[in-house]
Structure to design on (570 residues):
């Protein structure tokens, strides 16, 4: 009984400390960042190394980086996941090797992706510090999560559809296009949203690849500073940049919250539908 | 060991030595005379089926007769579903499933390499135990497989949709909501839609795996009437746990039994014969409810 009570108290304490940590973080951000936040802050260019002005070009650069990352990663992840789930046997040597590679990739720290991206995209392919280099590096980084979510989404589609489609003489490809992918669409979208969130929040992989330049990027081959890199730079390298760092962090967090909630909402809606259907 | 018929007797439904050419009179299913002739459409010889190392069927030999309803009965796990899936090569979809023996459909070995599996499955349709409409509209459910098989003209699609929905008695119930999701139909309606979807491809044989067992008694009765109305025009192989149903609708019946090793066909013959004078003692025990 006493043991039980102690355990209950412990559980409550940890729950409370987690929420208070979150609340503390949020209030700190709000107190320091909110006064700076204004429509102008979102559109203006940074001045005086970011101490003054806004984050317009940085939001644009972040958008481009994420867009490049997703356009490269999404088709590749879709193809890989479809291959893994629909076109090979899970116990095959090659598919096991692919699964293993995905697991390894998923556990590589993002700074390593940054170093790889710098060596491969910036130097070897000669793309330099650019939005393309950063985007492609992020693509490599998010590939494992994307493949996992797409594969899980496909695996969750009832096997009955595959059987029925085959029994009607439909090809696997057509069952995939007309039945399996539409059924898995919410899961795919949720996976995409989660990866977008993860890309938008990334710092380490971008410092060495898309660089620091905080001007409005003229093309995808220009360097562009991502939001998180901006925050990092303001708080570590710029004296007196704290207020703007907080305001930028607030913008980023609001964006991430929206993205994550959309993803979770989609997944929840989809699960409910699936339970109703089966 | 071939469990052949002791007598090549004509079914009670048969009207002549050969049936009128199986011209399709879709949309007026009830017009033609039912016709069941003891002439095999599917011949299975010495079929054995393994899942990995585990045998599921052993030495099954059976003839499926044209235009007749053949009921397969037997206790759970004796391989009835596996047997049906072997007939349209749906077993290809299951990793580790191996088949030995020969299955001939209209004289051709269906497992011959280079065979057109899609055409085979178009000729031999299958209905599953749980109604499995696609998460699409009622219309798209029937259209999608038709388009797959190269039927793209809207007029022909509409014509076939009308015909098969009439055939399964669903037309009046759904004609005003063809674009509604099929999932919104009741279980019995869904199952009839699945039958309509299979019929739209104009198959020669219909395999039905316990098509009524997931339905309420009234829907089950409707589907049963539907199956009976298909007799003659289509060759039907139906798996059922409902012995009374088998007795009501089938011309031929086969009893599967699972021995210590694998499922086997232990008796096959005219339905009335099997229920009236079973040759095998297990059959007698099973139909009297003493075993299984
Ligand atoms: N995909 C599969 N993988 C491995 N074993 C299987 C598979 N499908 C069926 N089996 C096994 O094969 C045997 C026959 O199964 P099957 O489903 O054909 O029986 P059934 O007569 O249809 O049973 P029921 O009346 O319960 O539907 C069973 O022992 C089952 O466990
Ligand atoms: Mg079964």
């Amino acid at each position: 009984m006493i043991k039980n009570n102690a355990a209950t108290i412990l559980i409550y304490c940890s729950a409370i400390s987690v929420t208070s940590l979150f609340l503390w973080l949020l209030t700190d951000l709000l107190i320091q960042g909110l006064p700076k936040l204004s429509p102008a802050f979102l559109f203006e260019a940074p001045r005086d190394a970011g101490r003054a002005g806004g984050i317009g070009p940085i939001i644009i650069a972040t958008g481009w980086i994420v867009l490049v990352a997703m356009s490269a990663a999404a088709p590749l992840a879709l193809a890989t996941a479809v291959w893994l789930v629909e076109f090979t046997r899970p116990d095959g040597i090659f598919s096991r090797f692919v699964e293993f590679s995905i697991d390894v990739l998923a556990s590589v720290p993002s700074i390593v992706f940054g170093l790889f991206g710098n060596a491969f995209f910036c130097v070897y392919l000669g793309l330099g510090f650019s939005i393309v280099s950063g985007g492609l590096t992020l693509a490599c980084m998010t590939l494992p999560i994307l493949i996992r979510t797409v594969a899980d989404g496909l695996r969750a589609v009832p096997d009955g559809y595959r059987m029925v489609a085959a029994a009607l003489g439909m090809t696997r490809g057509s069952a995939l296009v007309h039945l399996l992918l539409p059924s898995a669409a919410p899961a795919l979208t949720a996976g995409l949203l989660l990866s977008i969130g993860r890309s938008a929040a990334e710092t380490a992989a971008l410092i060495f690849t898309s660089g620091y330049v905080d001007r409005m990027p003229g093309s995808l081959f220009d360097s562009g500073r991502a939001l998180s890199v901006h925050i990092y730079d303001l708080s570590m390298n710029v004296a007196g940049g704290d207020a703007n760092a907080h305001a930028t962090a607030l913008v980023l967090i609001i964006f991430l919250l929206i993205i994550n909630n959309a993803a979770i909402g989609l997944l929840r809606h989809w699960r409910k539908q699936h339970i109703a259907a089966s | 060991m071939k469990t052949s018929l002791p007598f090549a007797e004509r079914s009670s439904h048969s009207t002549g030595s050969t049936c009128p050419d199986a011209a399709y009179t879709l949309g007026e299913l009830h017009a033609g005379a039912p016709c069941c002739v003891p002439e095999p459409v599917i011949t299975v010889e010495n079929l054995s089926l393994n899942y990995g190392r585990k045998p599921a069927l052993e030495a099954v030999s059976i003839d499926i007769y044209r235009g007749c309803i053949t009921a397969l009965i037997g206790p759970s796990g004796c391989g009835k579903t596996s047997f049906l899936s072997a007939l349209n090569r749906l077993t290809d979809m299951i990793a580790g499933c191996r088949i030995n023996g020969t299955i001939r459909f209209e004289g051709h070995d269906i497992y011959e390499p280079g065979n057109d599996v899609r055409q085979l499955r178009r000729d031999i349709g299958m209905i599953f135990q749980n109604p499995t409409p696609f998460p699409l509209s009622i219309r798209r459910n029937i259209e999608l497989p038709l388009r797959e098989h190269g039927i793209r003209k809207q007029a022909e699609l509409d014509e076939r949709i009308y015909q098969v929905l009439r055939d399964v008695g669903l037309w009046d119930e759904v004609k005003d909501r063809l674009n509604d999701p099929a999932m919104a139909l009741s279980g019995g309606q869904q199952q009839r839609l699945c039958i309509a979807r299979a019929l739209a491809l104009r198959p020669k044989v219909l395999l039905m795996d316990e098509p009524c067992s997931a339905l309420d008694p009234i829907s089950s009765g409707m589907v049963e009437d539907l199956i009976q109305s298909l007799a003659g025009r289509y060759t039907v192989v139906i798996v059922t746990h409902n012995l009374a149903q088998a007795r009501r609708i089938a011309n031929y019946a086969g009893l599967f039994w699972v021995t210590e090793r694998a499922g086997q066909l232990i008796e096959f013959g005219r339905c009335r014969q099997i229920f009236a004078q079973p040759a095998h003692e297990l059959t007698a025990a099973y139909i009297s409810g003493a075993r299984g």
Summary: The radius of gyration of chain B is 19 Å. Chain B has a mean pLDDT of 85. Residues B 51, 56, 76-82, 94, 263 surround adenosine-5'-triphosphate (ligand 1) (CB under 6 Å). The domain at 27-287 of chain B is CATH 3.40.50.300 (Rossmann fold).
